[in-house]
């Protein structure tokens, strides 16, 4: 379906999805991709549905939603492939502007070394760049790029874009066990993100069946270690795990708040104690959540942390 939602999104609020790429035209064959396998990776920008066709569909859906009194926070290009492969993306954005709704694009960044792609992305209010690795070998193993792509030019393209872009820039990094969660990988990604300076760096873990069955999420210990290394250099770092609930507003229910917050980032022991005290709750509540397998205790440099348990379905 070319238009879907609106769906509630942690990053984008109520987001009306625009699928400007049919499944699955992509420059990558990410091993964790949930859309399915890429039969042939590609990097030539071309015409798919055309701007007028998509804009018409969006306009109709927006009118319908407005009639029902529903709000839309973003029109979001989150297709079943790489959105910047669409040669009509810029024109589509221009023609959506009169609707007065913010526009978001989630890109794998693979074509950002091209000036025309950077110019197109600049038209959006919110852009998410994929930064899964800064190491050529890991990148090849994890993202399986089209043969002519070079990681170094992509990273340079991202830096150029970040300097010029005036909208909201965020990044997303998929963390995969035995691929990009080692200490060295974390340090490399942290150094790059520190220079790129996104408003927020999001870290995801594979939660749905990936393209390749040997792909697994990292353990909670690995996630904690990764977070501790990256958050020292990158101030706004969050996990995006699908379990998040509402980590921003306190519900007054200590268990719910603990689950929400620990899904977004590991919590120090003292922070957990403070949250309990604020809600007149006691330590056995934490012990129960650990016993039920909902959160787990882990350590970093002699300090205890609590993190939402991702490795088992609740
Ligand atoms: S870039 Fe996105 S659509 Fe393309 S293979 Fe990777 S995860 Fe799938």
What's the main sheet like?
8 strands, mixed
The SS-based structural class is: alpha/beta
Name the bound molecules.
iron/sulfur cluster
The CATH topology assignment of the domain at 3-165 and 178-189 is TIM Barrel
CATH homologous superfamily title of the domain at 3-165 and 178-189: Aldolase class I
The secondary-structure element order is: EEHEHEHEHHEHEHEHEHHEE
Mean pLDDT: 92
**Gyration radius, rounded:** 20 Å
Estimate what percentage of residues fall within beta strands.
Answer: 15-25%
Query: In the CATH hierarchy, what is the class of the domain at 3-165 and 178-189?
Result: Alpha Beta
Helix content bin? 25-40%
> Can you list the strand order of the major beta sheet?
1-2-3-4-5-6-7-8
Distance between the termini: 30 Å
Output the number of helix runs. Answer: 10
Shape: globular
Descriptive overview:
With 314 residues, the chain is of the alpha/beta class. It has a domain at 3-165 and 178-189: Aldolase class I (TIM Barrel, Alpha-Beta Barrel). Helices cover 36% and strands 18% of the residues. Strands 1-2-3-4-5-6-7-8 form an 8-stranded mixed β-sheet. It has a 3-stranded antiparallel β-sheet with strand order 9-11-10, with helices on both faces. A hairpin with a 2-residue loop joins strand 10 and strand 11. The longest helix is centred in the N-terminal third of the chain and has 17 residues, at 51-67. The radius of gyration is 20 Å and the shape is globular. It starts with a strand and ends in a 6-residue tail after the last strand. Iron/sulfur cluster binds next to loops.
